[in-house]
Amino acid sequence: MITAVGAEVTRHAVGQRAGVGCLVNSCRECKKCRAGMEQYCTTGNTLTYAGVDRDGTITQGGYATHIVVDQDFVLRVPQAIAYEAVAPLLCAGITTYSPLKHWNAGPGTRVAVIGMGGLGHLAPGRIHPRRQLEAQRPDRPGIPG
Do the Cβ atoms of 111 and 99 come closer than 8 Å? Predict the structure, then answer.
C-alpha cells in the first residue's frame, strides 16, 4: 500500500495497492536502461534485497516494513488479487515470463522448462494456463518426473 509519494510522482497515489519486484533502481542512462531492460543495466542495477543503491544505502527488500522506490519500479496491484498471490509473481513470475515474452513464445510454441522448483514451478502457468504440464526426469528418460 502506498503511504506517501514525492512531489514529482505522477503514476501512483497514496492509498493505491502496489508491489515492488526484484529491482529498485538502475542508471537509466545506458543503452539497456533506455530500452526498458534495466535488469541488464551495464553500470549495475540495484536489487531489492541487499543491493547497494545509488546513494550508498543497502536495500532491505521484503524484510522491511517500508520501502522507498522510484515510481518506475513500482507496480500497481489490482484489488482482485491478494498480496500473497502477487508476491511470487513479482520475482519468480517475472523471471519466467520475461524470456517467454522476449522470444514471443505464444500459442503453438514449444518451450522447455529446466527444473521444476523455484522458478520452474511458475513457468507452466505462464506458458499455457489451461494445459497440463508433462514433466520428464532428465536422469531417467521415459520416466515421468
Answer: no
Helix or strand run (H / E) with residue 74: strand 74-76
Give the single-character DSSP code of 18: E
Amino acid of residue 68: V
Q: Which domains does the chain have, with CATH numbers?
A: 1-80 (3.90.180.10), 91-145 (no CATH)
φ, ψ at 18 (rounded to 5°): -145, 160
Determine contact, residues 45/26, Cβ cutoff 8 Å.
Answer: yes
pTM score, two decimals?
A: 0.70
Model pLDDT for residues 57-105, shown as the tens digit of each residue:
899 886 678 888 899 999 999 999 888 888 878 877 777 777 888 888 8
The span from the CA of 69 to the CA of 48, in Å, is 10
